[in-house]
Write a structure and sequence with these properties.
By secondary structure, the protein is mostly beta strands. Helices cover about 0% and strands about 20% of the residues.
């Protein structure tokens, strides 16, 4: 007697060829193009500003001469200078005759040019 059939009469379709293989059939099948790269296209500017640094100290120093407002952003050129952004409030602890102030901002103390600030009083 002949061996029993290996299927129950239901035939599965032929699997597609692996990508990149040479395959030709009655159907010309082309894979769809990849989706566009959207990384970097969405910037959410509507969120809140970042929190202050961990060492943020909103309390003014005990002894200060004047509270000033930064007119411009200042990037220090020496380690003992104070960095700040336009609009920041700085507490002046000493006014030097050479046009530099010593002050406290964001818990840090340093020197900065007097021409970059105006009185906040």
């Amino acid at each position: 007697p002949p061996p029993p059939p290996l299927t129950d009469g239901f035939e599965l379709p032929v699997p597609p060829p692996p990508p990149g293989s040479e395959f030709s059939s009655d159907m010309d099948f082309q894979a769809p193009p990849p989706p566009p790269d959207l990384t970097g296209h969405f910037v959410d500017d509507s969120g809140p500003p970042p929190p202050p640094p961990i060492d943020y100290d909103p309390a003014p120093p005990v002894n200060y001469e004047e509270k000033v407002l930064a007119l411009y952003t200042y990037s220090p050129s020496k380690p003992d200078e104070l960095a700040f952004q336009e609009g920041d409030v700085i507490y002046v602890t000493k006014k030097n005759e050479d046009g530099w102030y010593q002050g406290v901002f964001n818990g840090r103390e340093g020197y900065f040019p007097a021409t970059y600030v105006t009185s906040a009083s």
